[in-house]
Structures are given as C-alpha cells and as structure tokens.
Amino acid sequence: MAVLTEQQRKFYEETLKVTKQEIQDLENQIQEELQRVKQRIAELQAAQKAARQMYDAACQRLGIPNDLEESASA
What we know:
single chain, mainly alpha, 86% helix, 0% strand, rod-shaped
C-alpha cells in the first residue's frame, strides 16, 4: 500500500469521522422511524380487535356463524 501524504491522511481521517457520524445519524433515524411504525401497527391491531369483537357480537345477536373466526384461525 502506498504511503499517504500528510494531506491525504488528514483527508481520509476527516472522511472517516464525517461518514461515521452520518452512519450513526442514519441509524438513529431508522430506530425512530421503526418505533413510529411499531406504534402505528399496535394502534391498527387494537382497532382491528375492537372491530372483530363488534362483528362477533353482531353475528351472535343475529344467530349466524362468525365467518371471520374461521379465517382468523386459518
């Protein structure tokens, strides 16, 4: 490997520093976005569960089988 000049060495050291910080910043953004997505999924699952309970209750009141129970367990 060729010997680097002082200027080249400083350039590559600065490049390491800057890109390492960029990588960390991106990782932080990824984790924040992932947390938002997980929260949204939890909200949607709770809404879906509530809707399924209402659907099941309506089926019971009408005396008909809950066709969603079969697809949920499949």
